[in-house]
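Dear all,

This email documents one entry for the complex benchmark we are building for the journal club exercise. For each entry we list the sequence lines for every component of the assembly. Then comes the predicted three-dimensional structure of the complex as a token string, followed by one or two observations. Please use this as the template for your own entries, and keep the labels exactly as they appear.
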Amino acid sequence: MKYSGRFGQFGGFYVPEVLIPALEEMEKAFYQYYRDKKFTAELDTLYRDYAGRPTPLYLATRFSELVGFKVYIKREDLLHGGAHKVNNCLGQGLLAKYMGKTKLIAETGAGQHGLATSMIGALFGMQTKIFMGSIDIERQSVNVHKMKLCGAEIVSVTGGTCTLKDAINEALRYWTSNVADTFYLFGTACGPHPYPTIVKHFQSCIGIEARAQCLEKIGRLPDIVTACVGGGSNAIGIFSAFLDDKNVKLIGIEPAGKGLKTGRHAAPLAAGTVGILHGTKMYLMQDKYGQILDTESISAGLDYPGVGPEHCLLKDTKRAQYFAVEDRDVLDVFDIFTKCEGILPALESTHALAWVYSQKDKMPADTIVVVNLSGRGDKDVDIVERNRNPAPSKHSS
Amino acid sequence: MKTYKQTFAELKRAALIPFFVIGDPDFDTSLEIIKAAIDAGADILELGIPFSDPIADGPVIQKADIRALAAGMDIEKAKDFIAKIKSYRDIPIGLLMYYNLIFQYGIEKFFADFAKAGVNSVLVADLSIDDVDEIYTPARKAGLDTVFMVTPNTETDRAKKIASKCTGFIYTVSLLGVTGGRETLSDMVKPLIAKLKSITDVPVCVGFGVSKPQHAVELAKAGADGVIIGSRIVKIIEDNLSDKKSIPAKVSEFLADVKKQLG
Ligand SMILES: Cc1ncc(COP(=O)(O)O)c(C=O)c1O
């Protein structure tokens, strides 16, 4: 490997020897093509004509009135496929094509990354296999159907907690046996080097656009940029453009599930310790022996015990702050935001909105907050129904 | 304490190296099974400390990890377990495990404590030669030998580098894939053994997919200094959970057969 893939003490590539040649090949291809004229021109065209970039920056007027400061929404939910995942999938998929790979595999939690990979598999005519926990298959069945319609094969994973972590385990095992012709299209800014760097690069379009849109529309940079954090790809995608803008606060929101005190959550930055899983050193939910703990979140896309290594460093250096919000607040704000704006946010993205809502009347009226709305909530309608908070929220009008 | 060096020097044939997950299916049964394996002629033991997310392992060993964890195995008990085996017989023991368990225990302390318990080497499945510095010195300081993996897709220069860091033996992965029984040997393994033999004097032990006495014989003929049999034996445990008392004899029978055919 040419680079260490470290973010301070975090990151690296802690994988079995058999995967090293595949990661080396990927690192080499990435650095060969990511600035290549032909590659970037092709990717830009796909971003524009296939995915629908640039996405708008929208002033959520009624939600702003409700919370008492200005909330701008980066509309990644409007992308083809319904989430930011397509940015990364087009980038990595094109890389796979340039590398001459003919098969794609991917893990998925919410099904958004699986769907985006399936779309790109169809687009490039590549055979696609999606690994998905059996519980997630159940709770995100709409996306499962869509993936199949795109021609992907779904592999149901029953190990462990039957969620995203186990899907990654199984995808890694499958890759081990099929390294020669298969490209593992990893879904988030986590995992072994070079994935955190590659995924960040292909998601950085979110931040680059958002920053330019702020300057153009508002005439200044925002005070706060916030995003939900699962593995960390949509958050690092929007944060990356603002890292050098010291006056812009970067705030990542993790899922507190049933509550941090209950242990039933998926918030390693808030309540984890440093460890190694899936090829990277990161904050991790584990017991004192290093066994990985079960996680819980209403949003399948955030239900993961680790978090991307760059976020771990941003937390330690305090360049970004991370908070966690509970399922019940997410459900409340899902209703509140939808009723205000007529936009259904993905439950993942709703975590960021719920944090914004928690700041209601606490910030000056001229405060400008940009929320990365990483995906749309169509896939979550059933879950919201099933889990609706017993007492209707007093805030929903 | 018996070293790998002594063991390989004494043997006139390939070493028989069974793999077990410590505490599978429970502490006491696991101990009886491993004693039986020693009595049946195991030359070296390869032991795993169970981990919740073993990405280099196929379904059989994954289930063994889950069984052992469910029965309460943890790293402290694993230490006692090893000491108990060493008091039964002075046989070389290599650990095969995942990095996070070592990292949480404390790297230096882990190697020191497990050296004291009687371990000869620790192979970390998810730590490659690129990060050798994280464990090499602590391991050597504790008096342990080092073992790293070479796979069929490892380039020759890299294999040389890996060999130069192995003081115990080279763990030679016979195929591209995870652990698990296979009907036939991979056609990649013999060229790999030949390649390793041409670049190093360190003993070459072959594992992953070795499932039949005939596989062991073939590998030995191809020049392997040791054969590691994992999933095939762990499967005997899985298949006899309803009659745990019968497992040691069944494991013993299988290993005795392999041993006989190895000559
Ligand atoms: C809409 C949406 N947002 C966010 C995430 C979380 O991933 P990440 O933290 O990589 O952005 C997912 C994952 O499935 C998702 O579908």
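Observations: Residues A 83, 109-110, 112-113, 188, 228-235, 301-302, 346, 348-349, 374-375 surround pyridoxal-5'-phosphate (CB under 6 Å). The two ends of chain A are 56 Å apart (CA to CA).
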